[in-house]
Amino acid sequence: MEWGPDDPETTAGLVPTPRMPAHEDDADGETGLLLAAHGGDVQAAHLLGRHFAQRGDRSAARHWWERAAAAGNLDSAYNLGVWHEKHGSPGDAARWYELAAKAGDVEAAVNLATLLLDQHGDVPAARRWFETAARAGSRGAARRLALLCEDCREAETAGEWHRRAAMDGDLASAHDLGFLAYASGEEDETLRWWELAARGGHADAAYHLGLFLQANRDPEGAEAFFRLAARNEHPGAASQLGGIALSLGDLRTARAWFERAACTGRIDDQRTAGFVCVEMSDAQGASHWFSRAAAGGDPEAAFNFGLLLIAEHSDLQGGQHWFRQAAQAGHHRAAVELAALLSAAGFAREAERWLRDPPSPLWDRATEPELVARAELAAAAVARRGGTPLRVSDLTEVLGTWDLVTRPLRDHTDVTTWLTERSGLPRGAVEHLASVRATLLRPGGAPWPTPVEIEHVLVTARALRTALPT
Known about the structure:
Number of strands: 0
Number of helices: 27
Structural class: mainly alpha
Radius of gyration: 31 Å
Helix content: over 70%
Order of helices and strands: HHHHHHHHHHHHHHHHHHHHHHHHHHH
Strand content: under 5%
Largest sheet: none
Distance between the termini: 70 Å
């Protein structure tokens, strides 16, 4: 992209702030600098470039920086790189950055690596320059390099660079190290890195550490870190604190926390806020939250909103609408209630269809908090670095089902055989369910499950609940 005519009023806002070491001073004035620069003074040429850049005279700034850079001034080369990048000339920017980077300029090496990665997708070249900068002490380059290594499935190397960045104060890398350790089953390291990041103010680290402690049956420790995360406006932490208050019967506090989370758009918390409002006999509040969650596609909220419309306003048409929305999304009770409404309204044929083939009941059992925490940690770990997300509700159903159907057993030494014989399901399917469950509870022994695997084991889990009395 060519630079246009020099017009200080229109170009001043387009000029990047030039870099100049603190000891530099152009107090001698333009005339003195011009005389020195024409006499071959490289530093004067660099200062002239800065002087004209600040005035918005791009052509003159480029001229003097190019003269200074050609004579070896790294700051001029760096400034030219920034300038060309800002004005859409990535090729020229890369050329000047590379000139400075090859001479040892760390910032230029970072900018060059970023440019190569973002503009050209040149991962090998970007990686080389990030490593050059990281070895020269750039914390940001160490982190970017760690993330590139993660993307290349080089977990050990990624950990080394994350560790270097974290020890230099990068809280995001400390948080990432916690996840790498968790996925490897290294719980002491998980605790170490998440606590380091959490106490430094990293909200996600505080939240995940709270889940980790909850999963390890330390509710007091979990609550302390949820509160730390909530102070940094973490909606998940607000939801967890709402659940804690609800378990203690403190509806007012629970409502405040759930509504705080719900206001960020979290559908599960909108629905739960609705239920708390029902418990507090606040039909208007319940209607508000159920309607928001229902509009967001939540079938349970749609069903309860329909019930509320009928009970509070005798709005049969509205109730029918939301029952149908819920039933079409797979809500069993909504299908049954919809059939009753349709039958009463004279639509016997449609009512019969819903009664003849209602959706299977959704998982609505209370699940131990430590299992829910393991499910959420696994989902978060899988979703990192662009992984295909897993639904926490699905993982909770897998863990909760196993807990439910094996509850009668006193001896768990051969639980797979017992489940296979009692249910009549193929042994391989039950073993697959057991394997996925083990990975969710104790990571490190096998890769995280894929979405397809979760679909398969959910079929097995639901068949077990159907076959075995619970």
